[in-house]
Amino acid sequence: MLKKGSKLNSILTGSCPRCQNESMYLDKNPLHFSKILTMNEKCSHCGLKYQIEPSFFYGAMYVSYGLNVALGVAAFVTSYLIFKSNLKTAFIGIIASNVLLFPFVLRWSRNIYINMFVSYDKKYNK
After folding, report:
1. Residue 75 and residue 14: Cα distance in Å, rounded?
2. Which string of DSSP letters, residue by residue, matches 80-117?
């Protein structure tokens, strides 16, 4: 169970990084592709404005790149070194894992990025 107040809780659940009482997203399900990045303007509990500055989440692209590289390395190691597949199959595994986990990586990158700038504050947990 994720402990409320931890950055990991906010990142994995997509909850407000300051109070962790509600989701930042209008639709909590990342598999609803038409609403995948549709966010609330601010937290109704603590008032945190999610779009801290104009184009704030462009920085999340760099986080997304890092997550996709890590995912690709993990897929390669799993496929090629553990399951002893050939290189072609290993690269197909990399592509498949990146495509299948795309909606989750997209949300996780935004969640990680905003958590770099906003920390949990106990005073909003009332």
Report:
1. 24
2. IIIS---HHHHHHHHHHHHHHTHHHHHHHHHHHHHHHH
> Helix or strand or coil: residue 61?
helix
Q: 45 to each of 21, 40, 78, 114, how far by Cα in Å?
A: 7, 12, 42, 17
Report the sign of the C-alpha dihedral through residues 11, 36, 19, 115, in that order: positive
pLDDT in tens, 81-98: 999 999 999 999 999 999
Which residues are paired to 39 by β-bridges? 25
| 18 within 8 A of 9, measured Cβ to Cβ | no
Residues in Cβ contact with 92 at an 8 Å cutoff, skipping those fewer than 6 apart = none
In angstroms and rounded to an integer, the radius of gyration of the C-alpha atoms of the chain is 17
Q: Residue written as tokens 């692209």?
A: 61
